[in-house]
Design goal:
By secondary structure, this protein is of the alpha/beta class. It has a single domain (7-241), classed as TIM Barrel. Helices cover 47% and strands 12% of the residues. It has 13 helices and eight strands. It has helices at residues 7-11, 32-44, 64-78, 93-106, 128-139, 152-155, 161-170, 184-193, 208-214, 228-239, 243-260, 267-275, 292-305; strands at 15-19, 49-52, 84-87, 115-119, 146-150, 174-179, 199-202, 218-221. Strands 7-6-5-4-3-2-1-8 form an eight-stranded parallel sheet. Helix 4 (93-106) links the parallel strand 3 and strand 4. It starts with 6 loop residues before the first helix and ends with a helix. 46% of the residues are buried.
Length: 306
């Protein structure tokens, strides 16, 4: 079974997506005003779409009610300007299906998300067959495109190229993968044998440019929370094979990209967003704010970038 979606649908997720952080007030409540400011910042910066409730959004520390409220607020404030992707990961297949169906009922009569991002199950360490069956089961219960997400550094379980390709061929709603294994060989096999129209998207900011040169079609970025304009410009230049200009931006942002991940994500990029007066640096336990020394390095690098 091939994907039911046309190239016009998949093209909407080509380019730069932003894995939005979740701004918190100093006391820990969700800062919806800052979320709206962030959304405007990245849209005005020229990104192609936003991702709400991915890992960068600290979804693991939020209740289902909070997650729904954040996706709600994102859909409403984006207001059709660009696509919105909602994250629905987890390690219980049936719980994910129930949550997706509950959210669809919750949004009944209102605009819905444009796609769903689903990370490969964490902690359970399923076999490749288990991962395949997990996605095929979810595929039967969705009404919008699915973007797979392979991030073995967080899940402790790699989704192999053969499994990704098998899902891409057999699932009706799967249109793309956010591939964050950092494994160039694995990525090349996915790109080489992907079904027509299937997008391979980088999940690693620092190596997005070389990945696009190999055939990836974009990125879901953390860096673009802070620097949407230069990062999305770099991606578009790369997609147009204008690597001389893309390289200039890539190397301008390289040190900043490394620094914001030094002590965990999204604490680093939230420190940068604080410096930009977009939101507070607050994260929820067990995450913790970055050290003063690292924050100074990030601010110094931002001043250098200009």
């Amino acid at each position: 079974m091939a994907s039911k979606y046309t190239a016009a649908t998949t093209h909407r997720f080509r380019g730069t997506g932003v894995a939005l952080v979740t701004p918190f007030l100093p006391e820990g409540e969700i800062d919806f005003a800052a979320l709206r400011t962030l959304i405007d910042h990245v849209i005005e910066g020229g990104v192609e779409y936003v991702v709400s409730m991915g890992t960068t959004g600290e979804s693991a520390t939020l209740t289902e009610e909070e997650r729904f409220s954040i996706i709600d607020a994102t859909i409403e404030h984006v207001n059709g300007r660009i696509p919105v992707v909602g994250g629905f990961g987890g390690n219980d297949t049936n719980a994910i299906i129930r949550s997706i169906e509950k959210f669809r009922a919750h949004r009944s009569g209102k605009s819905y998300i444009d796609a769903i991002l689903i990370a490969s199950p964490y902690y359970n360490k399923p076999s490749q067959e288990g991962i395949y069956q997990h996605y095929l089961a979810i595929d039967k219960h969705v009404t919008v495109p699915i973007i797979l997400y392979n991030v073995p550094g967080r899940t402790s379980s790699n989704m192999e190229a053969a499994t990704t390709l098998r899902i891409a061929r057999d699932a009706e709603h799967v249109i793309a993968i956010k591939e964050a294994s950092g494994n160039f060989n694995q990525c090349m096999y996915i790109i080489k044998d992907a079904p027509e129209g299937f997008l391979v998207i980088s999940g690693d900011d620092g190596i997005t440019l070389p990945f696009i040169s190999m055939g990836m079609q974009g990125v879901i970025s953390v860096v673009a929370n802070a620097y949407p304009r230069p990062f999305s410009d770099m991606v578009r230049l790369s997609l147009d094979n204008k690597f001389e200009g893309a390289n200039l931006i890539h190397y301008k942002l390289l040190a900043f990209t490394d620094l914001i991940f030094k002590e965990g994500s999204p604490a680093g990029v939230k420190a940068a967003l604080k410096h930009l007066n977009i939101c507070d640096e607050k994260v929820r336990l067990p995450l913790w704010k970055i050290s003063e020394g690292l924050e100074k390095k990030i601010v110094d690098e931002m001043n250098s970038i200009g």
